[in-house]
Amino acid sequence: MFAVLVVATVGAFFVTTRLKRSAPVVERLTFNRHFSPNGDGRFDFVQFALQLRHTDDATISIVTRDGTRVRTIVENLTLDRARR
């Protein structure tokens, strides 16, 4: 069992190192830092832009700080390798 754990740990190290060296899928992401959709006319919407390295499908969701999905805005939208 100990040997299996050692092999798994070494394997995880190499996978992590490879992921760190790989190019990110999203090259640039810009957005408004403040968002409070409470209907008062201030910060009720958010605009964002991103630049992808390759054409890919994307799902855009609103999530809370702990990762709970509140709402899905777009699902499986094909985005070209361009700024959106």
Account of the protein in words:
This protein is α+β, with helices and mostly antiparallel strands. The chain has one domain (24-84). The protein is 24% helix and 36% strand. The chain is built from 1 helix and 4 strands. It has one helix at 2-21, and strands at 26-31, 48-52, 56-63, 69-79. The strands form 2 sheets. A two-stranded antiparallel sheet has the order 1-2. Strand 3 and strand 4 (69-79) form a beta hairpin. The chain starts with a helix and ends in a 5-residue tail after the last strand.
Q: First CA to last CA: what distance? A: 50 Å
Tally of contiguous helical segments: 1
State the secondary-structure class.
alpha+beta
Largest sheet: 2 strands, antiparallel
Instruction: From the alpha carbons, calculate the radius of gyration and give it in angstroms.
Output: 19 Å
Q: Whole-number average pLDDT?
A: 82
| Total strand segments | 4
Question: How would you name the oligomeric state of the polypeptide chains in this document?
Answer: single chain
Q: What share of residues are in beta strands? A: 35-45%
The share of residues in helices is 10-25%
| Unreliable spans | none
Shape: elongated
**Count of the domains:** 1
User: SSE order, as H and E?
Assistant: HEEEE
Order of adjacent strands in the largest pleated sheet = 1-2
